[in-house]
Design brief:
mainly alpha
Length: 125
């Protein structure tokens, strides 16, 4: 299974903390704005089901996927654990690169992150 926190850590180790923080922040903001504008355009049409609305909901789903990545990146950066968490995983960078496609599946990253957090909290107890 894809570990969302490690996905963020590998990106940070490979591309730098500042760059990834900006990338993930823009990954939240830009698709959200475009998605909302697209939904608005779709709602102004006579048919409630149209490509603008579908595209808008897809873009909002992508924006939501970037939220856990952004939050993990902030936590990793604040803890200063980019090297400890990201560098051991660099050997699997190709796998993580392929796994990043899940960002395009609306809400999948959110669901995976919530499941993984729940599991890690159960293990901590």
């Amino acid at each position: 299974m894809i570990n969302i926190r490690k996905l963020a850590a590998v990106d940070m180790a490979l591309n730098g903390t500042r760059f990834i923080l900006w990338e993930f922040a823009l990954g939240v903001v830009l698709p959200l704005i475009l998605g909302l504008l697209s939904i608005r355009a779709g709602l102004m049409q006579s048919s409630p089901v149209n490509w603008e609305s579908a595209m808008g909901f897809w873009l909002v789903g992508i924006a939501l996927n970037y939220i856990p990545l952004f939050l993990y990146a902030i936590l990793i950066a604040k803890a200063g654990t980019v090297k400890q968490e990201g560098e051991p995983e660099i050997q699997h960078a190709k796998r993580y690169g392929v796994q990043q496609v899940v960002i395009l599946i609306p809400l999948l990253v959110v669901i995976l992150a919530l499941v993984q957090e729940a599991r890690s909290r159960q293990k901590a107890k």
